[in-house]
Amino acid sequence: MLVVAAALIDPAGRCLMQQRPADKRHGGLWEFPGGKVEPDEAPVDALVRELAEELAIAVSPAALTPLSFAADAAAGARPLVMLLYVARAWSGEPRPLAAAALRWDLPAALAGLPMPPVDVPLLAVLRESLARGDALA
Ligand SMILES: Nc1nc2c([nH]c(=O)n2[C@H]2C[C@H](O)[C@@H](COP(=O)(O)OP(=O)(O)OP(=O)(O)O)O2)c(=O)[nH]1
Questions:
Q1: Which sequence ranges form a coiled-coil region, renumbered to this chain (predicted)?
Q2: Ligand 1 pocket by C-beta < 6 Å: which residues?
């Protein structure tokens, strides 16, 4: 299963995380907004679509910078690969259309939140990248 997600970074360097609804797999955990890539869909197109559906924001494909990826092959679940992109520009104010809640925090403050396994190494990469001031992130 291929999943795409975005770290939306605001001008203060805070990142948006959303809380998964209680009735879903990983319910209650905090995740990057995004979702599954449909067959025949390009990953960035899937991410633009998911960000519109979940947060009611418009993001240009050119504003999505690939950062890293991670895999999760937990027993009993479909093996998952998640691609994480960074975005610093979008239009609209993110609204929790699909999530139980949204929160903005510096990546260091997000590290202690309960999140799906695949998100943990990706948040660490994001944190290091922002701390280094990488042009990419
Ligand atoms: N969007 C998103 N999904 C994540 C993250 N980490 C993680 O393990 N996932 C998993 C949860 C889901 O199984 C899948 C994304 O599916 P989805 O968001 O499109 O659909 P869904 O919640 O309805 O998923 P599902 O109930 O059908 O499994 O990836 C993350 O940071 N962001």
A1: none
A2: 3, 5, 24-26, 31-32, 34-36, 72, 80, 82, 116, 118-119
